[in-house]
Automatic annotation (TrEMBL):
<protein>
    <submittedName>
        <fullName>Zinc-dependent alcohol dehydrogenase</fullName>
        <ecNumber>1.1.1.-</ecNumber>
    </submittedName>
</protein>
<keyword id="KW-0479">Metal-binding</keyword>
<keyword id="KW-0862">Zinc</keyword>
<keyword id="KW-0560">Oxidoreductase</keyword>
<dbReference type="InterPro" id="IPR020843">
    <property type="entry name" value="ER"/>
</dbReference>
<dbReference type="InterPro" id="IPR036291">
    <property type="entry name" value="NAD(P)-bd_dom_sf"/>
</dbReference>
<dbReference type="InterPro" id="IPR002328">
    <property type="entry name" value="ADH_Zn_CS"/>
</dbReference>
<dbReference type="InterPro" id="IPR013149">
    <property type="entry name" value="ADH-like_C"/>
</dbReference>
<feature type="domain" description="Enoyl reductase (ER)">
    <location>
        <begin position="7"/>
        <end position="382"/>
    </location>
</feature>
<comment type="similarity">
    <text>Belongs to the zinc-containing alcohol dehydrogenase family.</text>
</comment>
<dbReference type="Pfam" id="PF00107">
    <property type="entry name" value="ADH_zinc_N"/>
</dbReference>
<dbReference type="GO" id="GO:0008270">
    <property type="term" value="F:zinc ion binding"/>
</dbReference>
<dbReference type="GO" id="GO:0016616">
    <property type="term" value="F:oxidoreductase activity, acting on the CH-OH group of donors, NAD or NADP as acceptor"/>
</dbReference>
<dbReference type="InterPro" id="IPR013154">
    <property type="entry name" value="ADH-like_N"/>
</dbReference>
<dbReference type="Pfam" id="PF08240">
    <property type="entry name" value="ADH_N"/>
</dbReference>
<dbReference type="InterPro" id="IPR011032">
    <property type="entry name" value="GroES-like_sf"/>
</dbReference>
Length: 386
């Protein structure tokens, strides 16, 4: 079959690889009908999360069940499903506590040197050997392990585009807001008007925010945040967002600030922009900026991925402001059924952020344009079987 293989940073190609097969009795093989590229894939693409051997990438996918293992209970060939991006057993301590991204049984790989890069933790599809070494779904077919726990059936009344983002980015945006425990009436500021940021903005409204602010430097993405998520927007290259947010909130700062950027935000860009708005170099790093932009006693919720040791962390400021900090990979299994309900009831629309729909054979070009934010690229969806 054809699949997108990571070879080394910036080199991903559509290769012919062996078809996946049932390896365990609770596996299924899925024929992938839609798959997307995520900002998280860019960390691997850009070499920020290491991967040595070639690997099939992709953790946002859905499709039709092709084959089931002997122990599969609720699925059969022909069923249409979406698949959460974390691979989780459904039975361990963490899975029972709705923490599927910390499953004890899906990842037997450890980071080298006593987990310096990563302690033992859950696996993700197509996300390096540190995350379990499983092949991903940017492919014609994919093996889905623990398939009694992850996949959710989708009926024919919903299109792939309407539900594909239940695999990751909508539950991720939702997690960021859920972790902040909104009571209603809050101002929520979201750093990053990429796919995850815009999903967090949509979630903020649904959870009772009274004001939603998006921050980015790409005008076309700020426009998506305005149109698709009804956010007010700030360009961090033109203004110091923390200052503007304080002006907008009676001098206090936002009640909740979400980092939907992560380490991808490149430091040269920050440093250039920092000069422009007369800030100290490095202060436009999204996480530090989030700490500045939140009000005293507020919450900073981090879904942007930080894959390595992160130093120069502003603990003094966090302590003085009495902040609550929360973050991590989204426990998709916890939220997906509720969120599917919201999509089905038309309380939220997820497909209006798709900028590119392409066949699988265009996927290496798609990585390039999504990474470089070319051609007003917001979110790419690929259809491996046309
Ligand atoms: P993306 O790269 O498409 O979007 C990131 C956006 O941030 C871009 O529009 C960029 O211009 C903007 N940006 C860069 N620096 C900024 C700054 N200092 N302030 C404000 N905006 C800035 O990526 P995405 O797909 O939207 O993903 C965003 C982040 O979320 C990534 O780090 C990704 O790995 C992470 N993610 C996490 C989870 C999770 O479970 N926690 C799941 C999916 C994605
Ligand atoms: Zn993703
Ligand atoms: Zn588990």
């Amino acid at each position: 079959m054809k699949a997108l293989v990571f070879h080394r940073p910036k080199k991903v190609t559509l290769d012919t690889v062996p078809d996946p097969i049932i390896e365990k009795n609770n596996d299924i093989i899925l024929k992938v009908t839609s798959t997307a590229i995520c900002g998280s894939d860019l960390h691997i693409y850009n070499g920020l999360i290491p991967q040595v051997r070639p690997m099939v990438m992709g953790h946002e996918f859905m499709g039709v069940v092709e084959e089931v293992g002997k122990d599969i209970k609720h699925l059969k060939r022909g069923d249409r499903v979406v698949v959460p991006f974390p691979i989780a057993c459904g039975q361990c301590f963490f899975c029972e506590h709705q923490l599927s991204t910390h499953c004890e049984n899906s990842n037997s790989n450890y980071g080298p040197e006593g987990g310096l890069l990563r302690e033992k933790g859950a696996a993700l599809f197509g996300y390096t050997d540190l995350y379990g070494g499983y092949s991903g779904g940017q492919a014609e077919y994919v093996r889905v392990p623990f398939a009694n726990f992850g996949p959710r059936k989708i009926d024919q009344s919903l299109t792939d585009d309407q539900v594909l983002f239940l695999t990751d980015i909508f539950p991720t945006g939702w997690s960021a807001v859920d972790w902040a425990d909104l009571k209603g009436g809050e101002t929520v500021a979201v750093f990053g008007c990429g796919p995850v940021g815009v999903m967090a903005m949509k979630a903020a409204w649904l959870k009772g925010a009274k004001r939603v602010i998006g921050i980015d430097h790409l005008p076309y993405r700020m426009e998506v945040a305005q149109k698709s998520a009804k956010a007010e927007v700030i360009n961090f290259k033109e203004h110091d967002p923390a200052e503007i947010i304080r002006e907008m909130t009676g001098g206090r700062g936002a009640d909740v600030v979400i980092d939907a950027v992560g380490m991808e935000a490149d430091r040269t860009l920050f440093d250039k922009a920092a000069q422009f708005v007369h800030l100290e170099a490095g202060t436009l790093n999204a996480l530090k900026m989030a700490v500045r932009a939140v009000r005293r006693g507020g919450v900073v919720s981090v879904v942007g991925v930080y894959g390595t040791t992160y130093d120069n962390f502003p603990w003094g400021q966090i302590f003085d402001k009495g902040l609550r900090l929360v973050g991590g990979q989204a426990p998709v299994h916890k939220y997906i059924d509720e969120l599917l309900g919201l999509v089905r009831d038309k309380k939220v629309f997820l497909d209006d952020i798709i900028s590119h729909r392409l066949p699988l054979d265009k996927i290496s070009e798609a990585y390039h344009i999504f990474n470089n934010k070319e051609d007003k690229c917001m979110k790419v969806v690929l259809k491996p079987h046309g």
